[in-house]
Specification:
The chain is an alpha+beta fold. About 55% of the residues lie in helices and about 15% in strands. Helix 2 (about 15-30) packs antiparallel against helix 3.
């Protein structure tokens, strides 16, 4: 009798389930840590959409936004900290940019300063040199390329500009 109830309960949703459930189950588990609500959401979304393209769209959206790629900063100070962390995560590529700029300046210890602008959606707006600095388009382009796709935060703080200075520091004991 239990088997009949399982078949009876499983029977009606099966027409919609084969097209949506496999993708929904695969997507729901990583996107939401609680599996009970994820299963409910996937089941509810399946019959209402009734198409695999809707589930695939959700999969594409859940993939990039699922991991903490763009964290949310609750204030300007936190946003600045997250931006600094994102820039630091790209330090290997940035060191190459800085070393190339120092080579162009013919000064291996030159102080290099760049300003990075991030909007409230976590998009990289641009990179510029501070006012009064000699224009160095290869440096700006290199830093832009190195930071493209970095996990900059979303926030309600508006546009934030962070100044990053690269300089040699003396080590004393």
């Amino acid at each position: 009798m239990v088997a009949m109830m399982a078949i009876a309960c499983g029977g009606p949703p099966k027409p919609a389930a084969p097209t949506v459930a496999p993708a929904g189950d695969a997507v729901a588990a990583p996107a939401n840590p609680s599996s009970s609500s994820a299963s409910t959401d996937a089941t509810d979304a399946g019959p209402s959409t009734g198409s695999t393209s809707g589930a695939t769209g959700a999969t594409a959206d859940a993939g990039p936004s699922g991991p903490p790629e763009k964290p949310f900063a609750h204030n300007a100070e936190e946003a600045t900290s997250f931006i600094d962390d994102a820039i630091t995560s790209r330090s290997n590529a940035l060191v190459t940019c800085v070393n190339d700029a120092r080579t162009r300046k013919k000064d291996v210890h030159a102080k290099i300063v760049v300003e990075v602008g991030i909007d409230e959606e976590g998009h990289l707006l641009g990179v510029k040199l501070p006012k009064g600095a000699k224009h160095d388009k290869p440096l700006v382009d290199c830093v832009l390329a190195a930071l493209r796709g970095a996990p900059f935060p979303r926030s309600h703080a508006g546009v934030i500009t962070v100044r990053r200075t690269f300089e040699d520091q003396a080590v004393t004991r």
